[in-house]
Amino acid sequence: MIAGYSHNGCVAEAAELFDRMPKRDAFSWTLMITCYTRNGELEEARRLFDRMPGEKSSVCYNAMISGYAKSRRSEDAIEHFKMMRKEGKDPDWSTFACALSGCANLAALQVGTQLHNLLLKSGHIIDIFAGNALITMYARCGRILTARQVFDEMVSVDLVSWNSLIAGHALNGYAKAAISIFQEMKKNGVAPDEVTFIGLLSACSHAGMVDDGLELFYSMSRDYPITPVAEHYACVVDLLGRAGRLGEALKLVKGMPIKANAGIWGSLLGACRMHKNPEVANVAAEKLFEFEPHTTSNYVLLSNIHAEAGSWGEVERVRVLMKERGVWKQPARSWIEIKNEVRSFSSDDSTEPRAAEVFMVLRVLNAQMRNIGHMSDSSLLDCG
Hints:
By secondary structure, the chain is mainly alpha-helical. Helices cover 68% and strands 3% of the residues.
């Protein structure tokens, strides 16, 4: 019954039934923890995990690690992996895949490399899911050659493997290599899917390869039975926007057969900042506010566009709008890996023991970048 409630998202009913159980075993506890993690209630899952009597099984740890990884709470996922190892539990391919996903999100290369070594010793390296997670981890950490080596050494690969490799090259700016891998994939008889084209279009966008990107976009429905979705249109809008073709981008959005989402309008707004176009920015921002009325970055971006154009009345209008809607600018957070530990910090965190030194070094770096011309538009650097 608890499993049934869990699969249908009935968390409260599952919890009530769990509390009524006259006797619970390890399986019961793990099932309820899984119910919480599957439905995104990670704090409740953690409380139950800490209360669980006796020895915790690998399955129980997997439930926590998987839940944290899916919710992008990567630090917690890695921490629970370490706890699991300390208690002498053997991780399986699923554990490794989730922990590696956490390393990828944090770009924690040292921890990810250690997981790779453990994966080799455990024998789970032959598992395709773990191999795909390794490709993504190395790619997001900027080690694209190592990602390719992992791919080449895998016993077998699937479409996800190819997509991970294409997306990895796209992320690191190797657009031509991404397209070459796409051609290699087709020669191996693997048909692309929606995710494949998201990676390819993203690669072309970041490399400024407008013609190649548009050809790939139109080939989706022409050469393959793939109908473009919002993510593909967002990539094309970004592609045109980065090239300064804002009119074409706006025309594409207005003529799409599907309703534009926040990602599409966000891509257009970002392009307006790059090419200083407050008129199109107003159109994109108003639509974006309908989807994300409380996302601070959208208001800040629009305000900055008008500030650069000297439209102080518009800047004030955006400020008033933020106040009326209860939106405030939240401090940014960053992660850094030091001695195999992932440390999280915010830009306004004065409690750090060496905060004064950090800010001093930042000021020196800013001055050096200005001197050598890397900050011709100094307003683009927002340290807050």
